[in-house]
């Protein structure tokens, strides 16, 4: 179960239903107690069976993941003014310079915005990742219960690979079979399978478009568990909906370990994130690496995600120059 979800339940137990009228899912046999322990469900029918308890989890997940995201989408000026209130006085000038450069850019296409990110900030080692998770409709999910090697796992993997290979064009069929370094299909580490795209040589969106046919396949409501009004059902309730995730790793050379709190103030109310400290030879303090992610992200939101990344990189670059 996600740490933030466990913490929320511990702090506000009255918001969650710890009991269910149905103790076992009639389709897969997964128990309600197993759900409470692991935070996962066994199949799409579990969501219906245990919905009185699961729906509050979905509400709090939405609260945490959306945060002030909609404000960024609808009113960027207001969004940045709110961020400004949280940073120290010593950073205001750099903040305004970065914001001025950011707002002077008039990007209309994602591929142009991405190109500028990779070209303008070569020292930041930006790496995007997009994943989409699914569960085949006719299989139950908690495959971890079946051990490392079972006939069920073999059947799932074989069917998924055949689906992708049959939908691939002649141009990229062989690429998918051997899995290029920017494309990967991962099975069972989270009780479902997922397709992932990674940045490669400063390119991400180009590959995303090239393999778009696979994402169209993954949106088939006949092949994968889907419930009207809820979305795609995976073993983890926090993935339910679009069941996708966009993330980015960014090295920020102007920041070090002692200044991480500035980034926490800027990012924390709007995005899910993790800060890492990377030790560099001869540097007094470890440098900062920022990981930002957004689950259940729509096409409209992807562009804004890139915009926010661009602003952070511009702010980091401005700070570096001023130092």
3D architecture notes:
There is one protein chain. This protein has 14 helices and 8 strands. The chain is α+β, with helices and mostly antiparallel strands and 323 residues long. Helix 7 packs across helix 14 (299-322), helix 8 packs parallel to helix 14 and helix 9 (151-167) packs antiparallel against helix 10. The radius of gyration is 22 Å and the shape is elongated. The mean pLDDT is 78.
Please supply descriptive tags for the structure shown above.
323 residues, alpha+beta, 6-stranded antiparallel beta sheet, two-stranded antiparallel ribbon, 14 helices, 8 strands, elongated
Total helical elements: 14
Please tell me what the overall shape is: elongated
For the residues shown, what is the average pLDDT? 78
Would you identify the regions where 5 or more consecutive residues have pLDDT less than 50? none
Beta-strand percent range = 15-25%
Q: What does the radius of gyration come to?
A: 22 Å
Number of E-type strands? 8
Distance between the termini: 42 Å
Reported for the largest beta sheet, the result is: 6 strands, antiparallel
Content-based structural category: alpha+beta
The amount of helix comes to 40-55%
Q: Topology as H/E string? A: HHHHHHHHEHHEEHHEEEHEEH
Q: What strand order characterises the main sheet?
A: 2-3-1-6-8-7
């Amino acid at each position: 179960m996600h740490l933030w979800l466990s913490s929320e339940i511990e702090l506000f137990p009255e918001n969650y239903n710890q009991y269910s009228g149905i103790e076992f899912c009639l389709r897969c046999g997964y128990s309600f107690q197993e759900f409470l322990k692991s935070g996962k469900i066994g199949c799409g029918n579990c969501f219906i069976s245990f919905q009185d308890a699961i729906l509050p989890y979905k509400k709090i997940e939405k609260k945490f993941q959306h945060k002030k995201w909609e404000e960024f989408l609808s009113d960027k000026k207001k969004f940045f003014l709110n961020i400004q209130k949280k940073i120290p006085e010593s950073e205001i000038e750099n903040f305004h310079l970065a914001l001025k450069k950011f707002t002077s850019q008039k990007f209309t296409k994602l591929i142009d915005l991405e190109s500028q990110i990779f070209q303008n900030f070569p020292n930041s080692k930006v790496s995007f990742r997009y994943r989409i998770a699914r569960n085949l409709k006719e299989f139950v999910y908690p495959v971890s219960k079946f051990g490392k090697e079972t006939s069920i796992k073999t059947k799932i993997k074989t069917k998924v690979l055949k689906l992708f290979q049959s939908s691939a064009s002649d141009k990229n069929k062989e690429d998918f079979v051997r899995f290029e370094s920017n494309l990967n299909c991962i099975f069972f580490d989270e009780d479902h399978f997922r397709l992932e795209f990674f940045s490669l040589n400063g390119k991400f969106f180009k590959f995303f478009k090239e393999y778009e046919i696979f994402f169209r396949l993954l949106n088939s409501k006949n092949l994968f568990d889907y419930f009207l009004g809820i979305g795609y059902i995976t073993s983890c309730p926090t993935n339910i909906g679009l069941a996708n995730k966009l993330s980015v790793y960014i090295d920020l050379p102007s920041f070090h370990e002692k200044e991480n709190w500035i980034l926490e103030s800027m990012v924390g109310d709007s995005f899910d994130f993790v800060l890492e400290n990377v030790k560099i030879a001869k540097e007094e303090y470890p440098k900062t690496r920022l990981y930002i992610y957004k689950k259940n992200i729509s096409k409209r939101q992807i562009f804004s995600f890139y915009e926010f990344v661009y602003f952070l990189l511009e702010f980091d670059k401005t700070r570096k120059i001023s130092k």
